[in-house]
Design a protein that fits this description.
Elements lengths: L2 E5 L2 E4 L3 E6 L3 H13 L2 E4 L7 E5 L4 E4 L3 H8 L6 H6 L1
Parallel strand pairs: 4-6
Antiparallel strand pairs: 1-2, 3-5, 5-6
């Protein structure tokens, strides 16, 4: 099992991730709202604006405050420093 930092020290298992998407579209916003109604949303934004929605294989939805490109880069092995993360 490999864990990837999704911002502010929060981690997700790469084995369980189905998709990493931007929060901009209406269907993704509906997915997040439905997840909140089911109690299946994990908010890892620390009060910041949600920029990335991570969909897990068990139906959970994880919210992150870092850019989708940054999260995807971390899945591919490219790491950013914590200093760059906090600028986002």
């Amino acid at each position: 099992m490999r864990l990837v930092n999704i911002g502010f020290g929060n981690m997700v298992s790469t084995d369980k991730v189905v998709a990493v998407v931007s929060n901009d579209s209406a269907p993704v916003k509906r997915l997040v709202q439905e997840g909140k109604e089911r109690g299946a949303v994990i908010d890892a934004t620390f009060g910041r604006k949600t920029k990335t929605v991570i969909i897990m294989d068990n139906g959970s939805v994880v919210l992150s405050a870092i850019m989708p490109e940054t999260v995807a880069g971390r899945f591919n092995g490219k790491e950013e420093t914590a200093e760059e993360e906090e600028k986002e």
